[in-house]
Automatic annotation (TrEMBL):
Protein name: Type 1 glutamine amidotransferase
Assigned keywords, A-Z: Glutamine amidotransferase, Transferase
SUPFAM superfamilies reported in the protein's UniProt record: Class I glutamine amidotransferase-like (SSF52317)
Region (Disordered): 31-60
Gene3D superfamilies named among the record's database cross-references: 3.40.50.880
Highest taxon of source: Bacteria
A GO term for molecular function: transferase activity
Family stated for the protein in its record: Belongs to the peptidase C56 family.
Domain (DJ-1/PfpI): residue spans on this chain: 7-171
InterPro entries tied to this protein: C56_PfpI-like (IPR006286), Class_I_gatase-like (IPR029062), DJ-1/PfpI (IPR002818)
Amino acid sequence: MADITGKKVAFVLTDGYEDSELTSPWEAVQGAGGQPTLLAPKDGQVEGKKGHTQAVDGPVSGADASDYDALVLPGGVVNADHLRMDEDAVALVRGFVESGKPIGVICHGAWILIEAGGVEGRTITSYPSLRTDLRNAGAQWVDQEVATDKGLVSSRTPDDLPAFNAKVLEEIAEGVHPR
């Protein structure tokens, strides 16, 4: 497992996220020495579609990509649909895209990357129903467990979490990836 001691990792999500797509990468980041931070459009706590709740550490409105070493975008249809319509969340994600810092995205989380202009010319995977959305946004969509493109790590579903977590940690350890 990669050592990411001291690295700050932003997790951006809201209610309706896929529970394991938050909890599994969060635990992986902590286990590798990283410092996960949950950023959301609302205060208090967020609730996953299967009932997991977690405290929000800060608002997306006050967050800046320069304060973090990497970003993780969990999926969940409701979560991703709401985040892609939140201007502050999209602006934060765009900041990560422009910085070249590692980004991990799984399942429907790719909708946020599309909105932030982060997929054009990139190889990415996702939940299969996003294939056309990603291709229309200029991405090269692939159907595989994990895809990596210059620091952008993507996976399809919770079944892919072991490979996703390992690759996200590896990319965080490597640092910024110029496009």
